[in-house]
Amino acid sequence: MTKIRFHEDPYCWQFEAEVIKAGDNFIVLNETYFYPEGGGQAGDQGQIGPDKVLDTKEMEGEVRHFTEFTPSVSVEQKVKCVLDWNARFNTMRLHSLAHMIYLAFSAVAGKSKVIGSAVTKEKCRVDLAYFSETNLESITEIVRKMVQEGLAIKTWEDNKKPGFRWWQIEGYLPIPCGGTHIRNTTEIGQFALSLKSLGKQGVRLYGTLD
Question: How much is the pTM?
Fold first, then answer.
């Protein structure tokens, strides 16, 4: 069983661990800071020993670090693990940005049902069941103000629901989320938002980092 540690410190990008399983194209560790794909967030990439990790996913009760080639490490071997920090940090920034987009949208247009979302190292998106004209300029201005104000961001596990986690930005209601996030809105830096109509489904908002 792998001990999940990325919530303890999402800024940890290198660590040592022990290999407990090596498949044809994946490695399982006794503990990991790699985030497995889930909740709309892409899995982490990086390096385990000499092996390049292309993706991380949770499958069959295991956190599997998928490698470019057949792993060269062996069971019980202690290995140095290094995350692709640029990818992880951008994903953290964009995941928090996605929640901020939703909060800003709700402030401008009222609460709408989220019908889809995704976060990668390149961009984030939020799909909403909203069918009226959307004021993207006002939404962007609210998000920009959040960034400039340097609001604290916190995440925590629900006391009554083990494994269920929350995300909250200072001054706003919490949002359910189990992803990795930055600690302060200023870390987002420069960003850009764009809007796309989904026709009868609603609207899609994209966020990118400049």
Answer: 0.96
